[in-house]
Each structure stands twice: as structure tokens, then as C-alpha cells.
Design goal:
The chain has helices spanning 17-25, 47-57, 71-81, 100-110, 148-155, 170-176, 187-198, 218-225, 228-246, 251-270, 275-288, 296-308, 311-321, and strands at 4-10, 34-40, 61-65, 86-89, 95-96, 115-123, 141-144, 166-169, 201-212. It is of the alpha/beta class and 340 residues long. Strands 1, 2, 3, 4, 5, 6, 7, 8 and 9 form a 9-stranded mixed beta sheet that branches.
Length: 340
């Protein structure tokens, strides 16, 4: 019998624990059992106690602790403790439309795919306070063969969905492995790009969840501490460079990877104070991207940027020089109009 495992990491989420539970329990039209797995990740508030209270009332709720900090570790713990043949990862502070799980499950069990994703919206408002024209979301289902979605998501990060927009078969995690704990942020993006490169994935043109925007959100806090270039670099070197090593003949993937690398390195150099720190950073990045190498003239320009950190030189490298070394990967089939 099918079982959906809903995995919910908790980090200082005491205000959202019960709401997250209600969003799952109030799902409509779902004719398959659900287990709810809370994983507390070193919360300093009452998140763990509130989850344990729910478990005492509902035998479908399980609560665990994960001491290694970070969403990937918490999600991996939840997966290890789960029993379901279908996996759904929910973030406690997000909100779920009331037929989301049924919509994802029905597509996943009716199509020859290993994952399905829907759509989401970002808002400071709650779901019940939104005015949504459902006619924009017709429920149309499309199946994409690899590597279409992998390249699309890699090329344009604005098209990525986020964990609560997906439902996966257990087989995906058994074959691809779990979330990469070396990637402290956007580990889900790395996983989904890898998924889209290797497996057929379905999309459904339907709202699945609301990304609730608030000041205490983990992503919001991380963005305040680190720039986008520094946040994305671990994903590049721990996921995308290893994939390139295994698939060096994938031209489109390689060109997208080069564009990401050639954009990130000058940004990180420019955002680093002190010549010695910039020099150490630059040398490390060249080791990080091996076996890829920087073109000689580009390397020399970056060394000059390390030395001077001149803003005009930075802009020249980023907006003029970079494009000389990246071949076109503008595949006419890789269009957003094909996505939904």
C-alpha cells in the first residue's frame, strides 16, 4: 500500500509547528495514508516540545532530532526515518494549498516519472488572505525527458521550485543519494537540477504552496549574511563540478557551468576586503573548479582584480570579458513557454 512521508525540518519554528501540522492534516481528496516526520535541528525555542505534543495526540506523527546543523542534514534524517514510497518535504513556515498532496500524488502515480512539481507563489500574506484567479492555473500536466528540466533550472534559477513544490518516488533518493550536506544553502536546488538531468519529471500547472516571506526565514537570514555569489559557490563546486567530471561531453551543461563560475569568481573577489584574503580566495577557487581551467587572459585579469579591486575592472571582467569565453548554449528547445 502506498504511503506518503511528509518530512518537516524544524529550526526555531515554534510559531509554525502546529500550523504546518494542520496544513498536512487538512489536505483534501487524498486517498492514501500520510506519515508526518518532524526533525528538530538544534532549535533554541519550543519547536521540539510542540512537535512531541502533536505526536502524543496523533500516531501518524513522528519526531526526531538531528544535531548536525543545516536543512540538508535535517531532511536526510527525515528520509532515513521515513517508511513511505513517496517523499514530500515541507518547510514549517510555508503554507500548503488544500489539494496539493492529492494533485502531486495523482500525477506521480499516473505518469511514468520519478518526480512531479507544481507551482508556488511568494507572499507576506497567508493563503486565506490571497485573491487568486484560478484560471491562470489550468492543472495541465507535462512530462519532460532528461535533461530538459535540469538544464532549464541550472540556466535560470528563477525557474526552480523549492522542496514543497515537489513529490518524489523513494527510488530517486535511493539512486541519486540524499541532500548534499556540504551545501549549506540551495542543496535542494542542486538535487533537483541533478534530478532533471537524469530522470523524467512531470510538471503540473497548479499552485501547490505559498512561500511565506518573513524576516526570520532561514533564507532571508542567510542572504543578509552572505552575498548570492558566496551562497551559490558551494553548490557549484560540490554538485555541478562533480557532475561535469562524470559527464564532460554534455556541452550545454558545461557552458552553463562556465558562465556560473566566470560570474561568481570576480564577484567574490570584489566583495572580499584585503589583498591577502582576495589572493587566498582566488587560488582556492582555481583548485575548486578543477579540471576546468580559466583562460589565460581571464586569469591575468582576475589577478589584477585581486591586486587592485578596481570597480571599473570588475565590471569590465564581469560584463565584457566573460562573454568571450562562453560558447552559446541557447538551445531553442529550452524555453520557459515549454515549462508550463
Amino acid at each position: 500500500m502506498d504511503l506518503i512521508s511528509v518530512i518537516i525540518p524544524l529550526y526555531n519554528a515554534e510559531d509554525f509547528v502546529e500550523k504546518a501540522y494542520d496544513f498536512i492534516k487538512n489536505q483534501k481528496e487524498l486517498k492514501v495514508p500520510v506519515e508526518i516526520i518532524f526533525v528538530d535541528n538544534n532549535s533554541k525555542d519550543s519547536s521540539f516540545e510542540k512537535a512531541k505534543h502533536l505526536a502524543q495526540k496523533d500516531e501518524q506523527v513522528k519526531v526526531f532530532r538531528e544535531t548536525r546543523q543545516g536543512a540538508p542534514s535535517a531532511r536526510n534524517k527525515g528520509f532515513k526515518e521515513s517508511k513511505g514510497n513517496f517523499l514530500y518535504f515541507f518547510d514549517a513556515d510555508d503554507q500548503l494549498f488544500d489539494d496539493a498532496l492529492a494533485s502531486l500524488y495523482n500525477v506521480l502515480t499516473s505518469q511514468d516519472v520519478h518526480a512531479v512539481c507544481g507551482r508556488f507563489i511568494k507572499s507576506h500574506k497567508n493563503i486565506e488572505d490571497l485573491s487568486i484567479k484560478e484560471m491562470k492555473y489550468d492543472g495541465d500536466v507535462k512530462v519532460f525527458q532528461p535533461p530538459f528540466l535540469g538544464l532549464l533550472w541550472f540556466k535560470d534559477l528563477s525557474t526552480t521550485i523549492g522542496p514543497p513544490g515537489f513529490m518524489y518516488t523513494r527510488r530517486v533518493f535511493e539512486e541519486l543519494g540524499m541532500y548534499n550536506v556540504e551545501i549549506p544553502a540551495s542543496e535542494d536546488t542542486a538535487f533537483d537540477i541533478d534530478l532533471g538531468m537524469r530522470y523524467p519529471v512531470a510538471t503540473i500547472n497548479k499552485l501547490i504552496y505559498l512561500y511565506f516571506k518573513h524576516e526570520n526565514a532561514t533564507t532571508t537570514i542567510l542572504k543578509k549574511k552572505k552575498s548570492r555569489a558566496f551562497m551559490q559557490w558551494p553548490r557549484i563546486i560540490h554538485s555541478h563540478v562533480p557532475f561535469h567530471k562524470k559527464h564532460p561531453d554534455n556541452h550545454a551543461y558545461t557552458q552553463i557551468l562556465k558562465e556560473k563560475i566566470f560570474s561568481s569568481i570576480p564577484r567574490m573577489i570584489h566583495e572580499t576586503n584585503g589583498y591577502q584574503k582576495r589572493k587566498e580566495l582566488f587560488n582556492k577557487t582555481k583548485t575548486d573548479i578543477y579540471p576546468l581551467e580559466l583562460p589565460r587572459t581571464y586569469d591575468l585579469a582576475l589577478k589584477l582584480l585581486v591586486l587592485t579591486n578596481n570597480p571599473i575592472l570588475f565590471k569590465f571582467i564581469l560584463f565584457k570579458m566573460k562573454s568571450r569565453y562562453i560558447e552559446s548554449y541557447d538551445d531553442p528547445t529550452l524555453r520557459l513557454s515549454e515549462y508550463f
